[in-house]
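Tokens for TetR/AcrR family transcriptional regulator. Go.
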Amino acid sequence: MTAPSGRRERKKAATRQKIADTALRLFLEHGYDAVGIRDVAAEADVAVTTVFSHFASKEALVFERDEDFEQGLTRAVTGRAPHEPLIPALRREIHAMVRHCTADSAAPIWRMIDESPALRQFEESMRLRHAESLATAIAADLDLPQTTTACRTIARFVIDAHSLARAAADPHAALDEIFRMIDAAWAVTRPSRHGRKAVPPGKAPAHTSR
């Protein structure tokens, strides 16, 4: 009986999208602070409890693709082709995210976010969570027993690349420049499998004789 379950999931997804679209429209029309959860629920013709069953907070209504972005980042690591290097796979995913966030239709949303301390704080916490999830995926990809400083550092660089590129005059040129630096940093700092640091090209391991 998979069809009923599929219908239920589609209905849930449609309700969630309707709530998010309604909230965003109200926020942009009246201002983020002027609109409450009850206003969103009434306009979307759902109960307040239904809003909270899909979104944990008012801020989450603005970042309704939060989970999609986080899953996309981890899939860029875990789902890339065999032997494809890590950094180019992440660069491709961040490029897609930047295209989404720099579309003309996104400009009013980012202005609203930039003007709201609550939304800026939520975005910062979201970025930190995305970076931690990405670092965990990178460590797992390398078969490391735990997330290393190198994994966390590169993950933070990748997440910050999105914000820096979004604010640049030429987002894609900025992203290319940033990822050249990320690639160079990863080449000399990446841990090998089982946690041993990778040896930079041309340099002999410290324990070997010259």
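Residues 195-210 have pLDDT under 50 and may be disordered.
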